[in-house]
Amino acid sequence: MSAAPPLRRTSPSRASAAPARRSTIRRPQLFAAWALIVPFLIVFAAMFLVPLGYAGYLSTFTSQLVGGEVFSGLANYTRALQDPSFWAGLGRVAMFLFVQVPIMLVIALFIALALDTGRVKGGKFVRLAIFVPYAVPGVVATLMWGYLYGTDSGLIAQLFRAVGLDAPTLLSPQNILGSTMNIVSWEFIGYNMIVLYAALRSVPTEMYEAAEIDGAGAWRTAWSIKIPAIRPAIMLTIIFSVIGSFQLFNEPNLLYSIAPNAIGSDFSPNLYAYNVAFKNQDINYAAAIAFLLGFLIMIISYVVQLATARKERLS
Amino acid sequence: MKRTHAATTLVSLAVASTLILSGCTPSAGGNAGSTTAAVSQADIDKAMQTPTTLTFWTWVPDIQQEVDLFEAKYPAIKVEVVNVGTGTVQYPKLRTALKAGKGAPDVAQIEYQYIPSFRQTNSLVNLQPYGGDELKSKYVDWVWNQVADDKGVWSIPQDSGPLGNLYRSDIYSAAGLSQAPATWADFASDAQTIKDKTGSYISNLPGNDPGQVVGLFWQAGAKPFSYDGDKTVGIDLDSAATQKVVKFWQDLIDKDLVSTDADFNDAWYQGFSSGKYASWQTAAWGPVFLQGTAANTSGKWTAAKIPQWNAGDDVSGNWGGSSDAVITGTKNPIAAAEFSKFLNGDAESTLTFANKQFLFPTTTDTLTSPDFTGQASEFYGGQKVNELFAGVSDTVSTDFQWLPFMDYVYSSFNDTLGTAIADKADMSSALTAWQDAVVAYAKQQGFTVK
């Protein structure tokens, strides 16, 4: 299959070539290579590794307003694992993962396939129109949707009243998760659509011709040729979305000012860590929550990748 | 061996210098918390003539006009005004700067309820040696108790928010009511009348505003918090007085006579201009605020005293208000203290605060000044609103305290009682949940809970 990820194909050969290359490389080249890499390494260490290490270090202390900081090993981690607020937040992002991500990606994929057939009138405009929400800053998008959702004066409520129906309470505690999912989908369908569409454009057209000759219709071509051909791109959007849902923060944090009681302080694990750090003044515990969340994201991303790698081998 | 030796030398040097410093220079205090001797007038004069730059963190708009007054009087002192954000945005930044040991301002605006949290970390300079005690008589009693106790004077009061009741006289008369409710019992029966005759809610109780709810507790005589300035706190959020308040509002909410919209957002502003709410139990800063948000209802509002729990009483609570504290680590504590005292004590400065920025005064002079009380407000049909609230200020119960971690208390309100209000759920048990959460947090933070 032509669209297999390039990395995977080249990595074995690179590994075997490495020892040979080391012996043939000349000193000035080595120097140049290091000179090019070192600036990145310095910034990477200073801006990523050091803060990460510091956060890890902080997470092993317990700080109290009275008594100060004491080394406490993994106590913050066991506390987080027993913290209902942490689990409630995780539960919500899990809902996000299993409800919002599939809906968003299916819609994005559908639009990408539709555009790819070339049968959509004004395809360029549609593509742009669907992509534009991604260019709108998340802050603006959330505030805008917040106004639309308003119970008394929001546009949606007004439309419902205009036709004589009861206005839905989109900002109530029961509905806020769905409302947030809607905002995130609105923001990211365009982005995912572009990724998938770009992948579709790189599929060799001979395959379609061959399929057509074999008598496959548009649906059949999409299902049996296009989707398998762009599987790496689909995987990419899934992984990004998984990470994105676990990192949910902007939307609930902004909706908090509009619907404070519906959001609460522990809507998502990130929001909870933020509130623990800056409202409860417990930076150490917040660091532990952040680390736990990081581990979880790593594990889940790895599982998703493993699952797909296995599928690819099977197919 | 060598390193240990060096360390020992360092320690002994440090001890020696501490001894020398504390022995010889009693009044030169960067860390003025430990200073007890009063600063002499000569020291003050000298400090005020030495060229100095002070940094002042505040979120009061247009405060430069008061700062200008100060700089005109003390040309040697320059004050740099920095707005790093409002209240809960500023405090984390202040804490971070204090922790880092640099970048903290000389003077910072701090709301009354957050003073104990900065005291607990020894971040406020005790203003007693800087003439703090002599100021007591200038300020309203209950306000002074917010910034001072028997251990020191921790800040200078800037503004306050005694509770009153702003109501739509047009909606009231449409419902056949001629005056504001005198008691909460009247309030409840008026609520039914107003709903039946006009369809409006008599009021709105937001689930996101612990400040207002605590103000209502305060008015009902509750004393939910106490703090000894060290390690002991008292938490009594679930008491007879607070349960009384909560049950009262629960009843009105259950009967759909009071709405529970979140406050200070667009929908809520529109609630005032559209007549959804017929009154607002608010602080003394409320009248001018309302004027800005519901301009189309000008002339239809009247200010009244807050309803009483017992007929014939005249007691109020407080909601909001700020002070200006001198922050530990300042290199110019004298100039900083003089600045805060001038800003919030000088007749012209406090009157400007009151009449230009509409900060409700804390000094008895300004509260009784005809320039302040005499102003008739068109929005309130020509009523002298300031005069009314100036009278209310004297009726606020004087010994209300706060906990040294109000950030948590307030965010936990939103998760417990606040959610129950917004969801129209059981507020009484939510109050208990709030109490439990705050006690658990206090213990976990190492405080002794009385």
UniProtKB/TrEMBL annotation, chain A:
It comes from the Bacteria. Residues 90-304 form the ABC transmembrane type-1 domain. It is found in: Cell membrane. GO terms for cellular component: plasma membrane. GO terms for biological process: transmembrane transport. Pfam families: BPD_transp_1 (PF00528). The keyword Cell division does not apply. The chain crosses the membrane at residues 31-54, 93-113, 125-148, 183-200, 229-249, 283-304. The keyword Cytoplasm does not apply. It is a multi-pass membrane protein. Residues 1-20 are annotated as: Disordered. Belongs to the binding-protein-dependent transport system permease family. This is Multiple sugar transport system permease protein. It comes from Agreia pratensis. The lineage of its organism: Bacteria, Bacillati, Actinomycetota, Actinomycetes, Micrococcales.
TrEMBL record, chain B:
This is Multiple sugar transport system substrate-binding protein. The keyword Signal applies. The keyword Signal applies. Residues 1-28 form the signal peptide. It comes from Agreia pratensis. The lineage of its organism: Bacteria, Bacillati, Actinomycetota, Actinomycetes, Micrococcales. Keywords: Signal, Sugar transport, Transport. SUPFAM superfamilies: Periplasmic binding protein-like II.
